[in-house]
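Hi support team,

I'm opening this ticket because the web form for multi-chain structure prediction keeps timing out on my end. I have pasted the exact lines I submitted so you can reproduce it. The total is 585 residues across two entries, so I didn't expect it to be a heavy job. Is there a limit I'm missing, or should I split the entries? Thanks in advance, R.K.
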Amino acid sequence: MAKLMNAREYEESLRRLKLTVYQFGKRVENVVDDPLIRPSMNAVASTYEYAHRPEYEDILTTKSHLTGEKINRFTHIHQSVDDLVKKSKMGRLMGSLTACCFQRCVGMDALNALSITTHAIDEKYGTEYHKRFLKYLLYVQENDLVCDGAMTDPKGDRSLAPSKQRDPDMFMRVTEELPDGIVVSGAKAHQTGAVNSHEIIIMPTITMREEDKDYAISCALPADAQGITYIMGRQSCDTRKLEGMTFDRGNMFYGGHEALVVFDKVFVPWERVFMYKEYEFTTALVENFAAYHRQSYACKVGVGDVLIGAAQTIAEFNGAEKASHVKDKIIEMNHLNETLFCGCIACAAEGHREASGTYQNDLLLANVHKQNITRFPYEIARLAQDIAGGLVVTCPSEQDLKSPEVGAWVEKYFKGRTDIPTEHRLRILRLIENITMGTAAVGYLTESMHGAGSPQAQRIMIARLVNMKQKQKVARQLCGIDKVDQIR
Amino acid sequence: MRHRQGRSDTLIVGVKYCGGCKAGYDRVAAVDSLKTRLSGVVEFVAPVDAAASLILVVTGCRTACAEIDSADGRPLTYITSAEDAERWAADILRIHS
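Hello R.K., no limit was hit. The queue was backed up. Here is the completed structure from your submission:
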């Protein structure tokens, strides 16, 4: 019987994990209640809580193709084009509710990519990876788990293949084969939501050749497996979360996090191994994951919704909302944001069925969508700062506003429209700051640039996937270079 | 139309929402407003409630992508905007009076 957890149950499930987490050089004993980490836990928890709300459940839940039971869509294997479209809509919805990275899409994308690739390996070699995978998927769905899809290796010297690196741990690898499983070592960098996850799904990060077959591995590990250590990444303005619940944090409820995850001789039982040295399938796994994950940047449309709302609000608080240039900038922000939505809907609507039965996006359009994501949020953020004015980076702290000595001056001199409390003006500015240069900018801007592959990775795929010959053929015919009997 | 036993004048309506990814209006507020305006005339229940004789499909836009399996063949009325909700409420009140 599948369990559809709520936020409280999810939080309790995290408390049962025995993670080894380091932050500022010290072991974090209570991960769930750590003030820097907790907002990111809240964001993941919202994917559980909103799944129980009638007004959101149509997107956030679906039926398992394995059991027919109701499950959280974040654990679903896409069974139709409609499922893919719903996934894009889910990204926008959750982004618009949290204004940050809610961290749960990457595991869903790893599961879907593995559902295709394990089937393909079995077709060629008669292995049983797909059977193992389905058993694992059932476990994930029945327990409503968060999976960290861990792909990005540290990579060391980028000019060298994994097996040619001076330090062999620059890519995740098999170090020992045992009768009941394998031992793996290495690390995965930039792992979003890692310490909010119940499971870590390892995937290779690049195409592997035969000489790199020890690096061609995919497997799943409990997040608290022996030998796994998490080292938290810093975020711009992160220590504002240590100042108590002041509005200087911008987003009062939610945030994201990333971590370096180190695997030091971690044992993986065979039933959790989904690829073992079948190096010729690494390209397919990486590209399938990338196509799903590039679609997942639908979430930035939702964050954009919040940022546009904040920009309109500060324009009104400043009394500038009727200025034609402000109205035009808001229109431009919406134009860019809805263009992004077009891309994530289009790649889903043009999706197709793979041999495993899983539906996959149109690869070209998924890459075009992600390429736009590397750019448009920056322009939307620029316009938001333009509308907000310089106070977005110069306003004093909440403590100054509340100070008996100087609070009255902050109140007086940072007043905008007389009917709007100064505090409201400062709060909305802090939210704009949070999304465009604070902790949430990690997700909205730099993650948009590099997450799911840096811009050049998409450009390579775009060049590979377009049908250039056909474009040339028609061009040559229409200008008369190549003769055709008739143009119909 | 079917009604709950003992309350023959009350219409039982199941409310099914879409997921609300880009809702053009506040769907929940619109339904709350209907509940207030139609108090004593309509009882709003979950769409899976077998007592519902009609399913009100409340969608955030005209794409209206809500899954309607739970309607189980019962008649559907779509609300795709706040104006739709107003019109439906007026229709119900007119019929009821």
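A quick check on our side: The longest strand of chain B covers residues 11-17. Let us know if the file doesn't open in your viewer.
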